[in-house]
């Protein structure tokens, strides 16, 4: 199989810190081009990572016939329009999360991908980390009994008014920035869809974005998600998987450093002082590289699975319902989507 040529839209921090180093090392992948509306920035990043071509517009990159895959880490409001343009140009697309800001947008993207015969995916790199795979294996093996609850905590502090995360009109705010992780996590481990959600938000008085959000979701199989996310609190990440006969705790579930082993605590739930706890480790892994390699395999197999579409649609429908619930201050039903949660 030939290496896939990747084109990068923009010079976002996530691209420079995580995805470009991952693509440089990923099997079956080749960094071929990068574009920015400021061509000098594109040229600088191209020089840093040894990327052959730099463009001064996104359209020029999308017109490059040698590009197979587009990576889209642009601000949230540009995810859908540029992904649609890339699909129309015959490219496969790996788009940062959240891929869409509404269910209608998600439906438009999945329909376009299917019509074009191209692979599109929402870049939840966490699904590819060995700790997540190990955790799901433990749950499937019944090590914590029946999975009943997922509890997620994800917060950081960023009060920069110029940061895209703090600009409401372009999709900023805690729910869409990091709450999307909680939603995707629960769907991944439960393997089904939420049917109703509730949500409360504390809005920044200057930015208008949600700076502290707590939500809950009731799943069709009876499981429940509870989460708190914040853009203006201490740096914390934690995930607890609660079962009828024990629980699992992941201490760095979302951004585990690639050069550090991941730690999982498997607890029988029989001793509050930790007497029933077993500490497990997973070897260091670059989840971004694993994600790129998995995406490349999907492209080579021409495999835009029904599960991938269901994940895009399910995440978007849930985030949209959480937003409605925060406004109505009532439980809100999830708008129906087709398909089941994917792998």
UniProtKB/TrEMBL annotation:
<protein>
    <submittedName>
        <fullName>Predicted dehydrogenase</fullName>
    </submittedName>
</protein>
<dbReference type="InterPro" id="IPR050984">
    <property type="entry name" value="Gfo/Idh/MocA_domain"/>
</dbReference>
<keyword id="KW-0560">Oxidoreductase</keyword>
<dbReference type="Pfam" id="PF01408">
    <property type="entry name" value="GFO_IDH_MocA"/>
</dbReference>
<feature type="domain" description="Gfo/Idh/MocA-like oxidoreductase N-terminal">
    <location>
        <begin position="5"/>
        <end position="122"/>
    </location>
</feature>
<dbReference type="GO" id="GO:0016491">
    <property type="term" value="F:oxidoreductase activity"/>
</dbReference>
<feature type="domain" description="GFO/IDH/MocA-like oxidoreductase">
    <location>
        <begin position="133"/>
        <end position="248"/>
    </location>
</feature>
<dbReference type="GO" id="GO:0000166">
    <property type="term" value="F:nucleotide binding"/>
</dbReference>
<dbReference type="InterPro" id="IPR036291">
    <property type="entry name" value="NAD(P)-bd_dom_sf"/>
</dbReference>
<comment type="similarity">
    <text>Belongs to the Gfo/Idh/MocA family.</text>
</comment>
<dbReference type="Pfam" id="PF22725">
    <property type="entry name" value="GFO_IDH_MocA_C3"/>
</dbReference>
<dbReference type="InterPro" id="IPR000683">
    <property type="entry name" value="Gfo/Idh/MocA-like_OxRdtase_N"/>
</dbReference>
<dbReference type="InterPro" id="IPR055170">
    <property type="entry name" value="GFO_IDH_MocA-like_dom"/>
</dbReference>
